[in-house]
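Support request, please re-run this one:
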Amino acid sequence: MPPGTLDDWTWIASDAAAELVAAAAEADAGDANAITRLRKLVPGERDAITAARLALELAEARRKAVRKALPPDVIADVEGVEMASSHAAAAHVTRRFASAGLPVVDLCSGVGGNAMALADAGLEVTAIDSDPVRAWMTEHNAGCGTHVCDVTDAAALDGVDLEDAVAFADPARRADDRRLRGLDAIAPPFDELHAVLTRFRGAAVKLASSTNAQDLPPGELEIISEISSGRRTLTQAVWWTGSLAQRAGLLTATRLPEGVSISGTSINGPVAALSDVQPGTTIFEIDPAVERVGLLGAIVRRLQGGAIADPGTGLALGTSNPELEPWCTPYRVVEVAPGHPDRLAPVVKQLQPGQVTVRTRGGFIVDPQALAESLRGDSGRELIVFAMRFGDSPAALICEHVGTA
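Re-run finished. Output below.
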C-alpha cells in the first residue's frame, strides 16, 4: 500500500507542490535533515512532515522509474514502481493486445505501468485497483478511466464491459516486504482471479518468473528476460489465455530489449560429462528465460553435437547454429581447471589475465566478485570463468569470448 492519503498525493501532483517536489529531487536520500529543510516549503494549511516525506518518496520512486525507462514525471510511490513492469516489458505485452484491437481492462493496475503502454498504443483502457491512491495514480499517469473496487467483486464490475474486451492483470506478489512466488500467495487468490478472467475474450496475467506451466490452466506461459543493473536476468512470467494465447499449449521465452521470442515444448536433451570439455570446446551461455520456461532441451537439440553442460547451469556444448542467436552466447574454453579457488588460481595466473569475470552455476558456492578480484592481472586479456559442477565434480571452465585472438 502506498504511504499517504489520496488528498496528500493529489496535492503533491499539483502546481502548488512544484517547488517542494523539485527540492526533494535534489535532496540527498541519506540526509537526515532533508525533511526539516523541505518542511519550510510546505504551506501552513498542510501537514508539513507528511508532505515532505511524500515528496522524498516521489523523488526516490522517480529515480527507480528511470531505471525501468518509465516517464521521468511519473506520479508513484517506491513500492509501486518496484512492482511495475519496465517500459520494454509493458511495450512487448502491449503489442499482442494491439493485435487483438479490443478494449482492455487493466485489473490491479498499480501505478499504471502497463496502462501507460496500452494507452500510448491507442487502445481503449479501463483500469481497476482496490486502492484509491493507486487507481488515481494510474488515471494520472495513463490518462485512462479508473474504477476503485475489488476485481473479484462481480457486482462492482457490473458497469464494466467484460465480454467484448480483453484483460491484463498484475496481482500483488508482496507481503511483509517479501516477494511471493507461488500462485497460492498472490492477491487476489489465483482461482478467484481466474474466474473473473474467463469472462473476457482473452487475458494476460503477470506472474513471478518462477511460475511453472504445470501449475496453470491451459494457455501459454511466457518467461521474459531483460537487462537489469548490467546483467541479464529473469523479470516476469506472463500467462496468456483465451484469444490472446497465440501459441496455446506451448512454452515461450522472450528476450528484451531485442523483442525476440522462441516457443516450443519441453523435451529432454543429452547431458555432457566433464570429460567432454577440452581446450577449444565451444560452450554456450543460454538465455535464462529459455531454461526457466523449460526449452533448454529443445535448444540443445538444435546445436550440432549439443549437450547440456549440467542441468540447472544454463550452459551447453555444441556447434553454433546462427538460427539460435541471440539465445546462445558462445565462449571458447581455454582451460579446464579444478573448481577449488586455491587450485584454480595458479591455472588462471599462468594464462596472464587482465579482466576476469567469475560466474557461478549449479549451486557452486563461492563469492564470484571476490574470486574475480583475486584472479585479475595487468594484461589486456579478458577471461570468463564458469565455476560449476558436472554431476558431483566441481570444475572451473576458463573461457574467452568467441572471436578473441
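Residues 48-67 form the longest helix (20 residues). DSSP finds 13 helices and 18 strands in the chain.
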